[in-house]
Amino acid sequence: MSQQTFAQLSNGLVYGAMGVLTIAMFAYAAELAFGTRSRVGRGVAALAARESKVLVAAGGAVAAGAANGPLTAVPVARHLDGAEAVRQAAPERQRRADQFGGVAFSLTRLGLLLMVLSMVGRGLAARRAPWGNMYEFSVASAMVVLAVFVAVTRRRPELRYLGTFVIVPVLLTLGAAITFLYVPAGPLVPALKSYWLVIHVAAAIVCGGVFSLGGVVTVMYLLQDRWERRGVTNRLSRRLPPSDQLDQSAYRLFAFVFPLWTFAIVAGAIWAENAWGRYWNWDPKETWAFITWVVFAGYLHARATAGWSGRKAAAIALLGLSCFVFNYFGVNIWFTGLHSYGGLPNK
Amino acid sequence: MTDNAVLSTQPHEAVRQPGLGPRGLARWAWRQLTSMRVALLLLFMLAVAAVPGSVFPQRGANPGDVLSYLDQHRTLGPWLDRLSMFDVYSAPWFAAIYLLLFVSLVGCVLPRSRQHVRALRSRPPATPRNLSRFADHRSFVTDAEPGAVVAGAREALRARWWRVDVTAETVAAEKGYLRETGNLLFHVALLFLLVGIALGALFGTHGSVIVVEGGSFANTLPQYDSFGAGRLASTSGLPPFSFTLRDFRASYERGGAQDGAPRSFEADLLVRDAPGASPRLQTVEVNSPLEVGGTKVFLIGHGYAPRITVRDKAGNVISSTAVPFLPRDGKFTSMGAIKIPDGGPTQFGFRGVFLPTARMDKVEGGTSTFPAADSPGLLLSLWTGDLGLDTGKPQSVYSLDTSRMKAGPLRSMRVGDTWTLPDGLGSITFDGVSEFASFNIAHDPGKEPVFFAAMAALAGLMLSLFVRRRRLWLRATVDGEGRTLVEVAGLAKSESGGLGRELDDLLARLPARPSDPYPAEEPA
Ligand code: HEM
After folding, report:
1. Is B520–A282 a contact, with Cβ atoms under 8 angstroms apart?
2. Chain A contacts of B521, Cβ < 8 Å?
3. Residue A82's pLDDT band (boundaries 50, 70, 90)?
4. Across the strands, what pairs with B285?
């Protein structure tokens, strides 16, 4: 196949992924709107029932089974209220709606596959790593968001309810990529031909995906926390994990990504040293990478500072995410600097 | 949260009233400065303080942009300048923030290190009396002797790198000290990072130079076009290498959507490491610099230098050089100036626009349609009068100070054209085009320390974030019926989780199997 064919194939796959993900989004929403607690929810509820018995029986000589599987770590006692009732009262129509969740997740994985193939096609078309301009960064970041979501959901099925809130930003990113940011596949300008750059950008893209997913989980945490404090329950709050678990999941994502972000910055500095003779030039892109780093260091600190964990730390994490996103879009568009290679069309 | 404090050397946030007097006050201030809350505040201030540097042009990177900003903002500009908004990263207030942060860091890390060393030497804390109060807790009864259970647990834990302390009936174990070690390593590495940066700023040198094809550069101060050195750097001891630019090649995308986009730049240098050393040929590219004894030469830009010959009325050559022109756009439309101070009846000069692929248009004038020198054109305008070279004011080589000059005629030229100048000034010939390359030449002795500090920080960070510090206890006692009641419990940082699985894992590896296996399902 010619490079041209690969490029067209790659574009077609992005459209295909968008189509599949759009259906997935509706399926997630349908599950949320019409389903019962769904299969996952029921699993959690059943476990809650079991653990509650254990708790009741805790005379000091009782142990929870070791074979509860990955859900063992989920203290779900709080979700117990009404779980039985919901399950038994669920009419057939709702149970059918539950299947939407499974369909949505399968479609998500299909969408992910299409995006991976699209990136492969783009790489073959351009004969280089397919993350050389903003269009390609955007597709790659969206892919990472999906990949991490799929990976995390396998380990913590209850996070599947975040599906809608993950797919929407992914679709928006892809839409923006293919309309505003699109540039045809092609080779890079000499300054960008560097192994360190490939590593730096790949790390930054993975960071983008994980930061974004962490942001989604953090927003859910703030909502759930608010509902819990006010004693409000609704469709979403009943399906989401309790707030302390959401907080923990968000922390895990951020704690995983912070060293990677540090590494991305170091790799960028090594590249800069090789290209310009100075490892740090304080150009706007670097400056905002630094600001993002410091804000997330603040987030990790806040979690260990009396009176700053929980909601305040979550707000800091969202601030850090905003800095990251601003660096990604805002700096490329409004500032000029050594990094003005975004490859934006019409510029 | 109180449980966490046990497993970390993080400072306690107890609010204490300051003692009276200046010593008490100083003590109080120090405690405040080294508290987590103030560290958090300083981190925030650092983030905020870095912002204006991305909004306003900075002298270090774009001195020209700063001048034009000051020119456009006559009232606001000087105020911003007074607030160091054009030198944010060397501003006193910026330095104040990060220095305070690092003082706080030292004040924080020292006592924590002491505490951590003590923790490393101490034994795991004794088994608490009531293990069932822990969230992660298991128990069962068995027919094995307590001593056998304890010994089995000890072996099982030792095999997994736990630090274990046993008594006749209890096992206390702890693991994950590397978390705190990593955290301290990370913070200390940040200190060294700052030291490395300071080394570079004090002892480093950096400069830039433009070399036309065929031209040479020797690494001495006068040969630089611009040069900066740290306060403690020696400028007389620059490494004595030199090089000649043999050839410069650029290639561009031709046709398609990215027509004219650069694809490769290569500069062939004939390098002598020292005067008299035998020369070697090296090709320098954008991401692969030349390195000579700790000093690196980076190819950072290029452009065109039209070759010009100026003759007097009698036909004697006054000047014959390649004059570098400054590229202004992606198609390499370039601006430059030719100055003839001596040899003519009066001083004169030319303002010039060089077009590598020139399209001459009667209406629009000249434009360049491609960055390669496919069909070069040169637009020159003649100026006569005082070039202003003797005023002592520094002049750009790319522009003509026409304030004391008179405009003459304009001419567009192709390679080989000769223009006979009016008023007996002689003639000018456009002989051809050379390319020039611009180089950054940098020596930064802090680079390696910064690199190693960054690596250490990264390693520390990963230990600190991925290692889990946890404690585990086991007690085996004989119950009323003569059987052995085994209780295990664990305590971990709240972030870690998964401790329950670890307890189950320990139970599974105990030689003493529970005789009543996990009576979990039915109420006792
Ligand atoms: C240059 C400034 C600083 C930066 C960039 C920074 C960054 C970080 C980061 C990223 C973490 C989380 C990762 C880890 O646990 O190792 C952390 C943890 C920590 N930092 Fe800092 N820090 C700075 C200064 C300070 C200062 C001044 C203090 C003391 C007041 C401090 C005390 C701590 C403590 C106690 C932890 C551990 C928190 C825990 O137990 O989880 N840091 N720091």
Report:
1. no
2. 50, 53, 65
3. very low
4. B266, B288
